[in-house]
Design brief:
about 20% strand, 5-stranded mixed β-sheet
Length: about 150
């Protein structure tokens, strides 16, 4: 399946950089979102506004991770989510900046471009069942509780 919209999300600890490409691979918008439930809601709202609103199933999203709350949220909302191996992502970045300088804005657009250009080489993620999502959420809550109790 080809998508009319391609999104790259550069993962960060406290915030994520997002880049959006149209059906011809041209950058059309970008923004940062916080790593929080509010941030994920902002991302879904922003994508809907930017795509006039397209159905989530018509939007492909590339990230350098295959799990976590961002992935779970995107899958639950029905987006086409692709995990790009970090080594693969490094090679894609080398096409645009051989010096290897880290730039979150460029990284997000590179991930979106990789999805646009190399879609057949990438694997779409499948949404886990509800029990697995609940288990992951409980695990994250427990890990957070343990970190706050120790610190």
């Amino acid at each position: 399946m080809d998508w009319p919209w391609y999104v790259g999300v550069d993962w960060g600890k406290s915030e994520h950089q997002v880049g959006l490409l149209n059906t011809t691979g041209e950058p059309v918008a970008e923004r940062k979102i916080p790593h929080s439930g509010i941030g994920f809601t902002e991302l879904a709202t922003w994508l809907s506004e930017q795509t006039n609103p397209a159905e989530p199933a018509s939007i492909g999203v590339a990230l350098e991770t295959s799990s976590g709350p961002v992935v779970d949220c995107l899958l639950a909302l029905g987006y086409g989510v692709f995990a790009i191996n970090p080594k693969q992502a490094d090679r894609f970045r080398d096409r645009y900046s051989p010096a290897g300088a880290k730039d979150d804005r460029r990284a997000a657009l590179v991930l979106a471009s990789a999805l646009f250009l190399e879609r057949p080489a990438l694997q779409i993620l499948e949404a886990p069942d509800a029990d697995m999502l609940e288990l992951r959420a409980r695990h994250r809550l427990r890990a957070h509780w343990l970190r706050t109790k120790q610190g």
